[in-house]
Every structure is written in C-alpha cells, then in structure tokens.
Design goal:
The complex is a heterodimer of chains A (147) and B (254). Chain A is α/β, with parallel strands linked by helices and 147 residues long. Chain A contains 5 helices and 6 strands. Chain B is mostly helical. Classes of the chains: A alpha/beta (147), B mainly alpha (254). At the A-B interface, helix 1, strand 1, strand 6 and helix 4 of A face helix 3 and helix 6 of B.
C-alpha cells in the first residue's frame, strides 16, 4: 500500500472512531431522555415526574383487570416483575391488550398514586409461533408461560 | 506492506475497468433477475399462504415478510455504501464511487418501505402509527442520511468531488447503524427486541422463519440487480466522452 493511500486509510479510521466515541458520550449523557417509558420500579422509587405526563411501561398483571364502573373505565396493575403500579384508563384498549401482555401507557400520577392513562399502546413481544405450538408450550411448561 | 495477493488484485483491477464492468453487469442482470423472481415467488407464497398464523397477531403478522427484510436491507446497503465510499476515497477507484452513489437510492427506498410497513403494522398492533422511540427515530434518521447523500451528490457538479463529499457523509453516518440495531436493547422502546438477529436461537417458529429468510435473500438479489443497473447508467453518464462509450453507441445505433 503506498504511503498516500495508507495515510487516507488511517485518516478515515481515525475519523470514524472519533465520531463513534463522540456519539457514544452524547448518547450516554442523554440516556434518560432516550428511554421511551418509565418502568414501574422507577415510579415506585419516585423517579417519574410528579405533576407531568409521562409514559409508563410494564406487563399487565394476571387477574388484575377490572371494570369498576359501568362505562369503559378499566383498572389494572402493571409490573416489571419487581414493583407494581395501578393504572386506570377510560377508552378502547388495543386488540393486543390482555393479561400478561406488555403495554405502554401515557398519562400522569394522581393524588392516590394511581396512574391515570390517556392512551394505552400494546407492546408486542418478539416471539412468533403458530397457535398450536403456543398451546403445547403452555401444556409442557405451565410455569414459564404463566408469568 | 502488501496485504492483497496478486491474483485478487488483478481480478479487481479488471473488474474495475469500466468497459469490462459495463459488459459483465449487463450479462449478469438477466440471470440475477431470474433467481430473484424464483426466490420472491417462493418467499411470498410461503409467507402469505404456507406459513401458519401467529398465536397473538393472527394473519396481521405476515407484513413481517416485507417489513423485516426491508429493514435489514436498509442497514446492509448503508454499510455497503459506506465501504464503497471508503474504498473510493482511499484507492480513488471510480467504480467504487459509482457503486456507493448507486446504492443510495436503493437503500433509501428500502428504508422508506421499512418505515411505511412498520407504520401500517403499528396501527393495528400497538395502537399507533408512529412513536418517537429510539428504534423508529434512528431508522428515520437513516432515511435522512440516504436523502442527504443523494442531495449532496446532485448538488456538486464535478462528480469526482461529489463522490468524495458523499463518501465522507456516508462514513460519518455509519455510527447510526449500530444505534439502530441495538436501540431496542439499550433503551426502553415500544418496538420489540430482535427476533432473528441475536446470539440466541431465533424466537420465531421454523415454519415462519424459512419464508422470512427466503425473502431476505430475494431482497439481496433485488438490490444487486438495481445497483448494477444504476451503476451502468451512472458509468455511461460519467464516461460519455471516452472512446469505449462512443464505440458502444456506434455499435448500438447500427
């Protein structure tokens, strides 16, 4: 490789590495802002904003979905498998909403510490399988799929 | 220092000669198109008809057969474009410059398809067309990078200078590629984690995975076809004053 070419190669490597390091630092410092939602543990630990809208993500706890009133109001608990937060939502839930499903809700905490959601989005998982396979999985490993 | 053995070096020299490349690419395109159509036909049939429905999403998940291969292509083509750009910068090979710029519009199209199909998938499943989470936002930035590359290239009249500028922009943007890939692992996102491209076993049933991989290979062939066609055109435009193009035109017009 002739010297001019080698110099250009080194220059490019230095440039790309330099940018990568700069971006890595920038992303690290904005880490909090890049999180799309807060976890339920964050909320219980008081890290979430008190009087402002924020997004809360977690898994709908099995057996906690209730309809206390006559209308569309629905109440359920969200968990990240360590802490739980109660959520209230009035409106139509997405098709994928069900117990044990991951969701992201946009809303705010009220005085009772209940998260009042204005919008609920379903977060689907990365697993794809035919219904029969799911059924046989459930039969063979009841503990793993029960979460 | 010499890390490229002579026969390989000679092969690349011959390949990089414009008339040779123009003729060879022209011969390859029909074959590649044939393979592409077979793969696409099988992939679509298997994905839309043979593959079973999903346990959660029913038939809606079938958009995966367009969405995921397009998203993979958007990243893959960007890497190819940046590498070709770097080769053009270092070795000043004209053909590498042409490959880089010819890749840009194909990559931009795949990025656009990935964004649109993702949006169409997001509405019924997530309940929204678009959210500003890390995955979706970084993929949108990728589209802007592609458009930036195309715009910059067209803004500079001297195409050798334009190629250098474009290569630097493409190399700067490379930092976005790992961000897109790992965004779903580094941050909380609405977009789910990787299904296939991870160290672990793919979390998709084999009967759904095979059509997906077939489509991915088909899209790769499509990219090669599209980039060769664009490269041939770009080559003719750049070399329009050279002897071999004049000879070619004379032969064609007979």
């Amino acid at each position: 490789m002739n010297p001019a070419r080698r110099q250009r190669l080194i220059l490019i490597i230095v440039m790309v590495t330099g940018i990568a390091i700069a971006v890595a630092f920038a992303l690290k410092s904005f880490n909090e802002n890049l999180m799309y939602f807060f976890s339920t543990s964050d909320v219980v630990a008081g890290k979430a904003p008190k009087a402002a809208l924020f997004r809360l993500g977690g898994m709908v706890v099995k057996g906690t979905v209730q309809h206390p009133g006559k209308g569309l109001m629905v109440q359920f608990k969200l968990t990240d498998f360590s802490k739980e937060v109660t959520v209230e939502y009035t409106g139509i839930l997405p098709d994928l909403f069900r117990e044990g499903q991951g969701i992201v809700a946009n809303g705010a905490l009220d005085a009772r510490g209940v998260f009042v959601a204005e919008e609920v989005l379903a977060k689907h998982d990365e697993n794809y399988m035919p219904p029969e396979v799911k059924a046989s999985l459930k039969k063979n490993m009841p503990t793993e799929t029960a979460q | 220092m010499k890390f490229i053995p002579d026969p390989i070096g000679k092969f690349f020299h011959r390949m990089a000669s414009p008339p040779h490349f123009y003729a060879l690419a022209g011969q390859m395109i029909p074959w590649l198109t044939g393979i592409f159509l077979v793969l696409l036909g099988y992939g679509l049939f298997a994905g839309l008809y043979l593959a079973p429905t999903d346990y959660q999403q029913g038939d809606s998940y079938r958009i995966i057969y367009i969405h995921v291969p397009s998203a993979w292509m958007s990243l893959f083509i960007y890497i190819v474009m940046a590498l070709a750009g770097a080769i053009g910068l270092i070795w000043r090979i004209k053909l590498a410059e042409i490959m880089a710029i010819s890749s840009a519009s194909v990559g931009a199209s795949f990025t656009f398809i990935a964004l649109v199909t993702g949006s169409l998938w997001g509405k019924p499943m997530w309940g929204t067309w678009w959210v500003w989470d890390a995955r979706l936002t970084s993929e949108l930035i990728l589209l802007f990078l592609y458009l930036g590359v195309m715009g910059l290239y067209n803004a500079i009249d001297d195409k050798r200078t334009a190629s250098k500028a474009v290569a630097i922009l493409a190399l700067v943007g490379v930092v976005n590629i790992p961000i897109i890939h790992y965004s779903v692992e580094w941050w909380n996102t609405l977009h789910q984690g990787p299904t296939v491209t991870k160290m672990d076993k793919p979390s998709i049933h084999i009967s759904m995975l095979i059509p997906l991989l077939t489509m991915a290979v088909a899209f790769k062939f499509y990219y090669v076809i599209a980039v060769l066609q664009r490269a041939r055109l770009e080559l003719l435009q750049r070399e329009r004053t050279s002897a071999w193009v004049k000879k070619l035109v004379m032969e064609q017009s007979k």
